[in-house]
Design brief:
With 193 residues, the protein is an all-alpha fold. Helices cover 66% and strands 2% of the residues. It has a two-stranded antiparallel sheet with strand order 1-2. β1 and β2 form a beta hairpin.
């Protein structure tokens, strides 16, 4: 005797789709972290990680952008070599650059909140370029606001020295990354419809 069962949808298609996108952005963050150049005398390398942080907020919104960066951080803390130059582990995450890593999560959520103004993402075509640019700058400020004091505290540097070696030298490159991100978005190369 055959029995029929009704199927029950435990997780909606939209949730599965957004989670899959978050996983892809987390993997992209890990890949971009490997494109990094250590500079002598500086505590953090020049890396492309911040591109993925920008993409997380812009494309996924505050909730799913936050999920993407949380996944990235959890995988790295668990020991997968996803941080800059293949680094991994809790010790690295709590080290001098740990504030920047935490700042990535905060920045993705902040960018998503400013751009989308709600939990679920909306089409970037509905968001002005000025709002997108402002959100990316706010995200960058959040990264530095967490990263620089953490760097100062973990290394014993003064705040001025930490800001000099952990922010000032990186700002020009980070502003170029913001412009490049906006160009990719404006050109439609990053549309998620």
């Amino acid at each position: 005797m055959s029995q029929e069962y009704d199927s029950v949808e435990l997780v909606g298609d939209s949730t599965v789709s957004q989670f899959a996108r978050a996983v892809v952005v987390a993997a992209l963050t890990a890949a971009f972290a490997q494109v990094s150049i250590p500079l002598p005398g500086l505590p953090a390398p020049v890396s492309f990680q911040v591109f993925a942080v920008y993409f997380a907020g812009l494309l996924l919104g505050p909730l799913w952008g936050g999920v993407a960066l949380t996944l990235y951080l959890l995988v790295g803390v668990a020991g997968a070599p996803v941080f800059s130059n293949g680094a991994a582990g809790l010790g690295y995450a709590l080290g001098p650059t740990g504030g920047y890593l935490l700042g990535f999560l905060v920045a993705a959520v902040l960018i998503g909140a400013i751009v989308h103004r709600r939990i679920e993402p909306r089409s970037l075509a509905d968001v002005s370029l000025v709002v997108q640019a402002g959100a990316l700058v706010a995200g960058l400020v959040a990264i530095y606001a967490l990263g620089v004091p953490w760097l100062a505290l973990s290394t014993g540097m003064g705040m001025t020295k930490a800001a000099s070696v952990g922010m000032v030298v990186f700002v020009p490159g980070d502003l170029i990354k913001i412009i490049a991100t906006l160009a990719l978005v404006k050109g439609g190369h990053l549309a998620l419809e």
